[in-house]
Amino acid sequence: MKRPMLAAGLVLCASGACAQASDKPPIVVGAVSSLSGPGASATSVQAARAYFDTINAAGGVQGRRIEYTVVDDQMNPESAHKGASRLIDDARVVALAGGSSVLECGVNHARYAQARLFNLPGAGVDPACFSSTHIAPMNAGPYVSTANALTFAYRVLQHQRICVVSPALPGMTEAFEQTVQDWARRMSAPAPSLDVYRLEDPLPGVVQRVSARQCQVLVYTGPEGPSLDWIKASHPAMAKTPIILLTASYTSQTARALSAWSGEGIYAMAEFDPWSSSSMQTADWRRLLVSRQVEPSSLSQGGYIAARALVHVMMGMEGPITRASVSQALERMPAWRGGMMDKPFHVGANGQHALNRSALPMRLVDGKWRIAHHDWISY
To answer: What is the pLDDT of residues 244-298, one digit of tens each?
Structure first.
């Protein structure tokens, strides 16, 4: 008779194994995540917690259960600092994994390096997430995703006159400006226009300015809520201009909200194997999320993969599992194919990480997301 298997590929523990795990001190894993505030989401940490729970149900790691401690940064730098301090100062915390914050990397990256504490966010947003020695996100992030969207617009859709519209989010505007300049130089392509606006600005004036550029295609770099506002405000003037959104807008909510909209195309860049597909790569993740009633999304993919990556490293360790030993093991981890990513991932010493740099374009068709291009695009 076959024994029941978990999504993680592990056998459920017998009562004796579970008792053994509960008798040992837990392995404490933390996360700093934006759980409250405009546009906040708990999906990434929910998926990470669900995966850790499956590991605990299978006997834990070295007979020790994983205790997952998540702090809410409230989208506030001071809260992000205080929350990280709690985790940094707790010697039991061996690593961080699965968080999704709009600002905490910029606030805390130097402190993580000083404490030799690694952070594997499910989704990184601010520029420091992708250039820090002790932070290695699972997602490609808004800047690489913007470059991939530009490449899709230029090479696949074959448009020359590309417009980029970017809401002025704290700490991100300069990075988007640099991304657009670097992309044009690297591709030897006409430089896209870049219009930055404040979220409190009246949209009709911004739309009028962008519409006057006679864009052949538009890349919008903002999060899901502002992207929906932009499409609805710009549609009367730019109904026939295709628009490419970033991963944050690749959601079932966006699909429902825009299902009745006409035009020549609404696209979004998927940074993992598309959650809306029925591929084998997403099967275990999907089963776990359905059982926990967590909404399938790119954020939940990132949280799940981050938890898997950390457990994969810890499962391969011999000897005590501590902050120092986990950090050393992460710095030495070989390239890992965790599923749902185009290329292998690994954490490296001195920031020599192999991070996700790919995206697969999706297109909204009859209210559903469909794969728009047969190949991953990597910048």
So the answer is: 999 999 999 899 999 877 556 999 999 999 998 878 889 999 999 999 988 889 9
- Cα Rg for the chain, rounded, in angstroms? 21
Number of Cβ atoms within 10 Å of the Cβ of 33: 31
Residue 189, SS3?
Answer: coil
- What does DSSP say about strands 93-97 and 119-120: parallel, antiparallel, or unpaired? parallel
pTM of the model: 0.90
Over range 114-132, report the average pLDDT: 96
Q: What whole-number distance in Å separates Cα of residue 111 and Cα of residue 68? A: 20
Relative to beta strand 217-220, strand 193-197 is unpaired
How far apart (Å, rounded) are the C-alpha atoms in residues 248 and 270?
Answer: 9
**Rounded to 5 degrees, what angle do the CA atoms 343, 255, 300 make?**
45
List Cβ neighbours of 91 (8 Å cut-off, separation of 6 or more): 323
Per-residue pLDDT tens for 8-43? 333 334 434 444 445 799 999 999 999 997 778 899
CA dist., res. 117 & res. 152, Å (int): 37
Determine how many CB atoms are found less than 10 A away from the CB of residue 14: 11
Helix (H) or strand (E) holding 48: helix 43-57
Does residue 228 carry a pLDDT above 60?
yes
Strand runs (DSSP E) across the chain, as ranges? 27-33, 66-72, 93-97, 119-120, 162-167, 193-197, 217-220, 243-245, 266-270, 358-365, 368-371, 377-378
Residue appearing with tokens 């010493």: 349
Compute how many other C-beta atoms are within 10 angstroms of the C-beta atom of residue 233: 15
Which DSSP category does 116 fall into?
T
Question: Which pair of structure tokens corresponds to residue 49?
Answer: 């917690």
Q: What integer is the mean pLDDT of 338-356?
A: 92
End-to-end alpha carbon distance in the chain: 48
- Determine the residue type at 43: T
**How far is 11 from 190, CA to CA, in rounded Å?**
55
- Residue 309 CB contacts under 8 Å (≥ 6 apart), including other chains: 97, 120, 138, 336, 338, 345
Element (H, E) at 169: none
Residues 236 and 65: their CA atoms lie apart, in Å, by 55
